[in-house]
Design a protein that fits this description.
Elements: H1 2-8, H2 25-39, H3 47-55
Length: about 55
């Protein structure tokens, strides 16, 4: 599903090397903070539910 979205929106997917979080340190840090502050403490029913919770 993500691959299809990326293709249709002209987004090039570029994965970092497994085990090398320093390849993309900013995104790794951001994702960790979002997970710690918003996602770990909750159960979500859908992607829309996640987006709504983050926007609060």
């Amino acid at each position: 599903m993500f691959d299809q979205w990326a293709y249709h929106n002209g987004v090039e997917i570029d994965f970092s090397i497994p085990g090398k979080p320093t390849d993309n340190a900013f995104c790794e840090a951001f994702n960790g903070r979002i997970r710690a502050k918003c996602l770990n403490a909750s159960w979500f029913l859908s992607t829309a539910d996640i987006i709504e919770r983050i926007e609060e």
